[in-house]
């Protein structure tokens, strides 16, 4: 071990018996705002060496190894074409590991990742940390703006969906109405600010108390744009990055949580290292939460 124990040391390969798996899903096709989210998994791995393993708040280091299962080969594929290989890769990881981290790619990876559980959808709960409802129309096919609507269309009950961090002036009234009509729990970013992130996340967990398994979608554009400039959909007034980290760790601590994804990070948008360090810290919070189970 080096004099600077860091997250990159936790990444290993060909280790199906370790508790955590990492699947890269470098999908950029079908983005409402075209970009290079496909570069995110590689940049994430490169940045892990800059994140230490000692958590000063709890007085211990994170230690659980992560089996890096590599990236799904989705270059040049449409969302429809990429969905099966992503689903299959996540299914393999879920079979081997207690927790699977999915590094996107755009938010379209969330649907095949959840379907990779290969279980009845009425037993699955979805928690999104996202500024957007992701309830765009399916009329023109799949995109990164409609994975939640697509999953409802697949049969995921709305009552099994909790959405945290929804932003004003970033959605439409039709999406809001449809989410409410489906039974989704909707918690806006103003409610998070008013009541605190802890209340919001506990409310989401309680909403899905009847679900056997949880999937957490971390669309990184939920974070305030000033703190996450590498997210094309992020806007001023978003979630404070410290609240985002707290939420990720708390949700990773839940034993029912089997999949956590990170989506919508476009590395070239940020000429600094701020967004990369934020994304890499996401891995640390996932592992820290898992270690507390």
TrEMBL record:
| Xref: SUPFAM superfamilies | Arginase/deacetylase (SSF52768)
GO biological process terms, alphabetically, are:
L-histidine metabolic process; putrescine biosynthetic process from arginine, via agmatine
Q: What is this protein called?
A: Arginase
Q: Which InterPro entries match?
A: Ureohydrolase (IPR006035), Ureohydrolase_dom_sf (IPR023696)
Q: Which organism is it from?
A: Sphingomonas sinipercae
Q: Give the domain of life.
A: Bacteria
Q: Output the Gene Ontology terms for molecular function.
A: agmatinase activity; metal ion binding
Report the Pfam families cross-referenced here.
Answer: Arginase
Q: Which Gene3D superfamilies match?
A: Ureohydrolase domain
Regarding protein family, the annotation reads:
Belongs to the arginase family.
| Swiss-Prot/TrEMBL keywords | Histidine metabolism, Hydrolase, Manganese, Metal-binding
């Amino acid at each position: 071990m080096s004099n600077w124990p860091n997250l990159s040391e936790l990444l290993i390969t060909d280790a199906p018996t370790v508790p955590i798996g990492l699947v890269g899903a470098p999908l950029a096709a079908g983005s409402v705002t075209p970009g290079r989210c496909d570069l995110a998994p590689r940049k994430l791995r490169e940045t892990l060496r800059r994140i230490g393993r000692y958590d000063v708040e709890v007085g211990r280091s994170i230690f659980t190894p992560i089996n890096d299962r590599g990236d799904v080969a989705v270059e040049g594929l449409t969302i429809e074409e990429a969905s099966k290989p992503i689903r299959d890769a996540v299914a393999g990881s879920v079979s081997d590991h207690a927790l699977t981290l999915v590094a996107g790619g755009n938010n379209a990876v969330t649907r095949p990742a959840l379907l990779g559980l290969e279980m009845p959808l009425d037993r699955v709960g979805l928690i999104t940390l996202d500024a957007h409802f992701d309830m765009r129309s399916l009329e023109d096919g799949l995109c990164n703006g409609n994975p939640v609507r697509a999953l409802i269309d697949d049969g995921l009950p709305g009552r099994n969906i909790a959405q945290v961090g929804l932003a004003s002036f970033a959605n439409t009234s039709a999406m809001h109405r449809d989410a409410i009509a489906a039974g989704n729990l909707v918690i806006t970013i103003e409610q998070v600010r008013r009541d605190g992130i802890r209340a919001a996340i506990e409310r989401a967990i309680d909403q899905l108390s009847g679900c056997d398994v949880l999937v957490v979608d971390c669309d990184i554009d939920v974070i305030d744009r000033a703190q996450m400039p590498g997210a094309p959909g992020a806007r001023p007034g978003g979630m404070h990055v410290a609240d985002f980290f707290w939420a990720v760790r708390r949700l990773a601590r839940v034993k029912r949580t089997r999949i956590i994804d990170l989506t919508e990070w476009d590395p070239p948008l940020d000429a600094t290292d701020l967004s990369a360090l934020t994304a890499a810290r996401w891995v640390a919070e996932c592992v820290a939460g898992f270690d507390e189970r």
